[in-house]
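User: For documentation purposes, I need each entry recorded in a consistent format: the amino acid sequence on its own, followed directly by the corresponding C-alpha cells. There are two entries in this batch. Please keep commentary to a minimum and don't merge the entries.

Assistant: Recorded as requested. Entry 1:
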Amino acid sequence: MDSGTGLLPAAAAVRRLRPDADLVLSTDPDGLPWGPRTPDDVTAHALEAARAAAAHAPEALIVACNTATVHALPALRAELEPAIPVIGTVPAIKPAAAAGGPIAIWATPATTGSPYQRDLIDRFARDADVTGVPCPGLADAVETADEAAIDAAIAAAARHTPRDIRTVVLGCTHYELVAERIRAALQQPGAPALALYGSADAVAAQALRRIGAEPAPAAAPTGGVQMILSGRPGALPATALAYAEGRLLAQSADGAVVGVRG
C-alpha cells in the first residue's frame, strides 16, 4: 500500500522473488499526496488503504511508503497484527553508512530534517558525513510520470548535493523508480561509481521472511495483480507503464500487458 506509484518498487521486488505470488496493490488516488498531510491525517488515509487491502485476506501487508511508515505504522500494526504481519519501509541509512560515505539522503522536504530521519542518522550513521537533501516536487513528478518535471526536480536536488558524495540513500519510495536518472545527475566524471541505496529489495525479502516463505525467482509466473483505488477495484494507471517496475507488474504470464487504465 501507498498513496500511489511509490508502491511499484516493492511490489516489483516481490514479483521478482516470487513470480507466483498474487499481489493486491492498494493506493489512494483520491487522497494523494500524503506528504503534506498532518500525521493524524496520514494515519487515517493509511488505515483506509490498509483496510481495503485487508479485505482480500493477504498473508502480509507492505507499507511501501516512508511517510506512512513514519506516522501510521503503530496504528496499522495495532489494527492488523498478528493476523496480518505489517512490514514498514525505512530509508536504507544503515547499509549506506556501513558502505562508507560521504552520504546524501534524498527525501521529501517533510522527511528531511525530521526527528525520524535524524534518529536514523544518530543510530546508524553517527560517524559518517551525511547531507540531507530535500527534493521538492520529485515525488509528485514521478507520480504523474511528468518527464520534464522529473528532470527539473532531480537537477534542483543535484545542485544541493555535495560533489564528493559517494553514496545516496533514496529516502522516498517514488525515487527508486528514477534511480538511474538520479545517478546520472550526480555521477562526477572520473569519480568512482555512485552507490544508490533503496528499500524495495530489503522490504520484499522481509515480507517473505515474516510469512515463512522462501524466495523462488524461477517459479512459474502465475501470480496475478489486483488494484485498489481509494477502496474501489481498478487497474494499474497508465502512468505506471512509464517505469520498468510498472511494466513488470502489468505483464500476464504470456508477457502481454494487461489490466491498465488510461
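Entry 2:
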Amino acid sequence: MRVVMFGYQTWGHRTLRALLDSEHDVVLVVTHPKSEHAYEKIWSDSVADLAAEHGVPVVIRNRLDDEELFERLKEADPDIIVANNWRTWIPPRIYTLPRHGTLNVHDSLLPKYAGFSPLIWALINGEPEVGVTAHMMDEVLDAGDIVRQESVAVEPTDTATDLFHKTVDLIAPVTIGALGLIASGQTEFTPQDRSQATFFHKRAEEDIRIDWSWPAEVLERLVRAQSEPYPAAFTFHRGRRLEILSAVVSTGRYGGTPGRIFYREGDGVVIVAGADARTGRNHGLAVTRVRTDDGRELAAAEYFTSMGGYLTGRP
C-alpha cells in the first residue's frame, strides 16, 4: 500500500523504520519540529532525519490545519495514513482521506490509558501489563476499532524506562501485522469497550512532586516511573529540593505523620507514608538513594545523618 506516515520521537522513528523495511511504499512523512519540552526531549530519535536518509519527502508541522499540507496529502494519494505519537488533533478530512482511513499506533492497551504518557501512568497505577495497540482512527481520540494489540508483563522492579524498551519493540510487529490485515481486505475489527476507557493528560512538574499521604506502595511505583532519563520524583527537606532516585516499600510498619523521617531499615531510611499512617498499620517508603539540589547523588543513609524532621511537598 501507499503509506503516509505521521509521527514523532522514537515511537514515530520505530514506526517509520518498520514501514521502510516492509513491502509498503512510504510516499510522505509528516513530523513535528524539535521541542524543548522536558518529556519531548526524551526518546527523541528524529523521524525527519530517517525519512531524509531514505529519500522520503518530509513536511514539518505542529498542527495539520493548513491548506498547503492538505493539498500535499491529496497529491500523495495514500491508501492509508499510519500515525504514532502525533501530538495534535488530526482533522476528519485528513484521517478519512486515504482509501483505508488512518491507522493509529498507541503505546497502551486501549481502551485504557488513552492520551499521554501511558506507560508512566500505568506503572504508577500498578497495572500488571502494558502494550501497544493499532486501531482505526475516528472522531474520538484513541477510541477507534482495534486492529491488532500485543502486551508484555510488568515485572515487580520494572521502571518506566524498562517498559519503554519492552513496548517499543512491539511497534513493528503490531504496525506491520495490522497493515497486513487491512491490505488483505479485512474491514471488520474489534470495537473498544468504552465503559473501560480511561484518558490521561500530559505529565508536568506537579505530577512528580511526592505527596507523602499516598501509600508507600504507590510512592515506590512513582519513583520507578520517574526513572532516568525521566525527571526524578522530588520532595523537600529543610526547604531544599531533594530527588528520590530509588526506594522500596519498608518491611516493617510505621505509624505517625506522613513525611516523617523515622527509621533506618536495611540500606534505606524509612519515611512515614499514607493518609492513615497514624494507625500504625502502614508500611513506609524506605528511601535508598537521593540527589540533592546541587546535583550530588548519595545513599540515603549517607544523606540522612540523623532521624527526625520531615519531608514536605513544598519548601
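Summary note for entry 2:
The mean pLDDT is 96.
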